[in-house]
């Protein structure tokens, strides 16, 4: 059996992308990304999702390698974001009799994106599609994971879930396809980063999807990005569960920006004192240089966030404001929050960081630290106090 035949009659026909530098034109891809598509072969054949259109010819070659000149009867569209749907038009040219299977929202989007209105089959929650040879697909809606039309496809006979973006991760597939064929540990941080950047706003819908998935005796999860999960399903579910509950694990992110290094010294001092107090892990990011997706990943991962920045034009320094915008957009309901800032002649950053914490209803760990002009022994002492209070709070929990 070819390595691409994950289970008898279920073929991986996806592709790796190691050239795109920004996913959604936003998020870095240091180890690439895969766009996964799958063939389910019974007496009839269904393709589940497609790939980004620049890789359409590879999808076609992979399909031919798996099924030769046989025709595809159905294209099941679990998710319409163009990284999975933009090969639909080309695929339809190749297989003109193909019927497109999707829910009402999907079919509206197919018309809207690609002008395709006919040759479709509308499905609702729990509907089934019998391909013959014991390959029966059923469809289950998981709206907002990650768009409103998203659904999963369940193949009960193989205990296999085609999960769309759910349980996906950044990271191309290095040779293998299933989690026992690749180095699974390479993907955990990429999964958190993917979750934080792409799905992070939708914790509630992810929880609902998890509840639905838990009712199924799943043995194989085929997501649209990253490895096929078999051995590591409990760990994958646990990561998605924790992230979608916004439950940070113990740890501190110190995220700061600094124009001339004075605020940076505050950040360094806070981090050093936290380490000296035995609080950890501590991860420090200079927001003017750090990859925003990595900062977001760690804010999702850890329970404590300390933000610092100078006052700039009577406002927050832009890299700090950008972080706060990203956090607010993801509606993170709780984080233990500390903050510090600086100014030259009229302070604003500390006040504005405090207002942000109030808006987010985040728990302040202690009073903030505000520094006027250069980093001094007084400022150093205040930072030490801030770190000490955070450490006390951590010890008392
Ligand atoms: Fe991978 Fe929401 O698309």
UniProtKB/TrEMBL annotation:
InterPro entries: Flavodoxin/NO_synth, Flavoprotein-like_sf, Metallo-B-lactamas, ODP_dom, RibonucZ/Hydroxyglut_hydro, Rubredoxin-O_OxRdtase. PROSITE patterns: FLAVODOXIN_LIKE. GO terms for molecular function: electron transfer activity; FMN binding; metal ion binding; oxidoreductase activity. Residues 252-397 form the Flavodoxin-like domain. Pfam families: Flavodoxin_1, ODP. In the N-terminal section; belongs to the zinc metallo-hydrolase group 3 family. This is Flavorubredoxin. It comes from Alistipes timonensis JC136. The lineage of its organism: Bacteria, Pseudomonadati, Bacteroidota, Bacteroidia, Bacteroidales.
């Amino acid at each position: 059996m070819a390595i691409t035949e994950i289970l008898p009659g279920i073929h991986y026909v996806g592709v790796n992308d190691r050239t795109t530098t920004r996913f959604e034109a936003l998020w870095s891809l240091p180890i690439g990304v895969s766009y996964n598509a799958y063939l389910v072969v019974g007496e009839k054949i269904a393709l589940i999702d497609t790939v980004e259109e620049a890789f359409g010819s590879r999808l076609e070659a992979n399909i031919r390698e798996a099924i030769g000149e046989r025709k595809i009867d159905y294209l099941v569209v679990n998710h319409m974001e163009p990284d999975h749907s933009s090969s639909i038009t080309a695929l339809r040219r190749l297989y003109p009799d193909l019927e497109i299977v999707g829910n009402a929202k999907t079919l509206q989007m197919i018309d809207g994106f690609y002008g395709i209105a006919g040759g479709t089959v509308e499905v609702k929650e729990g509907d089934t599609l019998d391909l013959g040879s014991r390959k029966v697909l059923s469809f289950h809606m998981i709206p907002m994971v990650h768009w409103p039309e998203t659904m999963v496809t369940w193949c009960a006979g193989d205990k296999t879930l085609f999960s769309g973006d759910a349980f996906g991760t950044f990271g191309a597939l290095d040779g293998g396809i299933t989690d026992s064929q690749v180095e699974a540990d390479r993907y955990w941080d990429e999964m958190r980063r993917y979750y934080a950047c792409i799905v992070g706003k939708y914790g509630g819908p992810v929880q609902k999807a998890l509840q639905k998935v838990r009712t199924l005796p799943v043995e194989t999860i085929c997501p649209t990005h990253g490895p096929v999960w078999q051995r590591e399903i409990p760990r994958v579910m646990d990561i998605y569960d924790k992230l979608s509950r916004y439950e940070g694990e113990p740890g501190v992110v110190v995220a700061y920006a600094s124009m001339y290094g004075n605020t940076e010294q505050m950040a360094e001092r806070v981090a050093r004192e936290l380490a000296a107090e035995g609080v950890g892990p501590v991860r420090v990011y200079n927001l003017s240089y750090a990859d925003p997706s990595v900062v977001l990943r760690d804010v999702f991962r850890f329970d404590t966030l300390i933000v610092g920045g100078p006052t700039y034009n009577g406002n927050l320094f832009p890299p700090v404001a950008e972080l706060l915008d990203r956090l607010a957009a993801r509606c993170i309901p709780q984080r233990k929050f500390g903050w510090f800032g600086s100014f030259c002649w009229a302070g604003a950053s500390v006040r504005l960081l405090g207002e942000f914490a109030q808006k987010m209803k985040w728990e302040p760990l202690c009073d903030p630290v505000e520094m006027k002009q250069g980093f001094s022994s007084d400022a150093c002492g205040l930072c030490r106090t801030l770190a000490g209070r955070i450490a006390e709070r951590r010890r008392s929990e």
